[in-house]
Amino acid sequence: MKAEIAREETLLEGFKDQLSEAEARRRETERLLKRERLPPEERLRVREATIRELETRIRERAVKIWELEETIRFHEARLPRVSPTERYVTRRVIASLRRTVAAYHGWQTRDRRSLTTYRGWQTREAATVERFEKLQKELDSWNREVNILTTQIASVEGELEKKREAYPKYLLVEYTKFFDVIVRNPIKTPEISFELRGEFTLAAGLDPADMRVLRVIEDKLRGAFESWGSPTRESKEFAPYRFPAMPGQRYEVREEGGYWRYTTTKVKNIYMEHYEQREGTPYPKYGAEEAEETDVFKTVVEVTIAKYKKGKVVGTPWETRVSVREDEFPEVEKE
User: Fold this and answer.
1) Number of C-beta neighbours around residue 133 at 10 A
2) Which of the two residues, 115 and 251, has the higher pLDDT score?
3) Cβ(103)–Cβ(18) under 8 Å?
4) Domain extents for the chain?
């Protein structure tokens, strides 16, 4: 459903771009018809000014096209070196730039065609009837194009509205976060990791890779990690696998380490910026899971905590809970 909505939105955006260009060309044709009613001397002078204007416009637009194409090549060259989140955003930027370049090329073709026509009229004063018939046919053509595009846009907007109404209000997205820690005690300082996994509810329009969303998730998981395993009511048998550590030990979270992963239909794996995979930190198994859909926001999230040492789970994973409110996440941007 989400992919269908995205395709409809892309189609709608293309139709609106075409409509904007068609309306601009229709207005220009109407202006040309009005100008051709001027006296011959005034008509020649105005046409000469129009020719200079077209030449300047074509020349300046050619520079813009070259700059945009250079920008596209720059973004394409850096795609393999960026994170999955930035790669997704960069691809959208490239697609938008390509649409702009295509529109500019279309305008260049239109202006070159107009320039050829005006130069011909300047050197050969065509009959008034011929000029008016040519411009009137062009105006009728653009009027038909505008009507067709307006009908298509109304149809696509109707279908898009139906699909948006049928789209679920929330998505269930499972996030996995590794916290790297160092055990401090007088004897040794082994490096270990804790994996925290929880399924959070996001508004359907939110991007799970949005850094604002990730900050909320990390705060919740970090809070679960730091408050988890209070010494009260805990048996000594399980104490080595809980937080805090045994008496005399202290776990310190490594700020330079850590690893993000979440399950979603859009991006499978996400590395949080400024967090690098430290050697020895276990990777989760990658799957083909997809985000589930729901109409209810979960205010309590079950968080599973597992301790890793040398890439293997140590002891039995434990569970805790964290509370979360919908207003803690960023609002979905209105279109």
Assistant:
1) 11
2) 115
3) no
4) 2-166, 170-328
